[in-house]
TrEMBL record:
The keyword Nucleus does not apply. Coiled coil: none annotated. Keywords: Signal. Residues 1-28 form the signal peptide. Pfam families: PCuAC (PF04314). This is Copper chaperone PCu(A)C.
């Protein structure tokens, strides 16, 4: 015979399990692969983070943060005439079922006002704020491996004054 205490315990366990499953389902909607950050030299104040993202149901990255930088933003680099320009983006769409690459010379996470050098073979924690298809906003934790300073060399760029570093 079940007592009221065991019924309450079973109910609490069911609620907790449902919550964990819902959280896991939300995170499973966005997959992150091959996350890495370009290493730096002492005194360098910015770097880039790169990864491959995919959303099963469609989503968008609406924010990014990391404890190693004062500011982290989604940026886009693209040619305008014969000049490569970089600009901050308020969000990055992840179309349903499509792969979106954050890579040198394209979309990337710009890490500015670095608080420490980024040393090869260490890990940088990054948090992506993702708006899911149902408009819920979740945080996606990413551990990005620091690669050599010369990894994925980016073309020369002109910030063009569109934003401040």
């Amino acid at each position: 015979m079940m007592t009221s205490r065991s019924i309450r315990s079973s109910a609490c366990l069911a609620v907790l399990t449902a919550g964990l499953l819902a959280s896991a389902a939300a995170f499973a909607q966005v997959t992150v692969q091959d996350a890495w950050v370009r290493g730096t030299v002492p005194g360098q104040t910015s770097s880039g983070a790169f990864m491959t993202l995919q959303s099963a149901d469609g989503a968008k990255v609406v924010g990014v943060s990391t404890p190693v930088a004062g500011t982290a933003e989604i940026h886009e680099m693209k040619m305008e005439g014969d000049v490569m320009r970089m600009r901050a983006m308020p969000s990055l769409d992840l179309p349903k079922g499509q792969t979106v690459q954050l890579k040198p010379g394209g979309y990337h996470v710009m890490l500015m006002n670095l608080k420490q050098p980024l040393v090869k073979d260490t890990t940088v924690p990054i948090t992506l704020k993702v708006e899911l298809a149902d408009k819920r906003v979740v945080e996606q934790k990413v551990d990005a491996r620091v690669r050599d300073l010369t990894a994925g060399n980016m073309p020369a760029m002109n910030h063009g004054g569109e934003h401040k570093h």
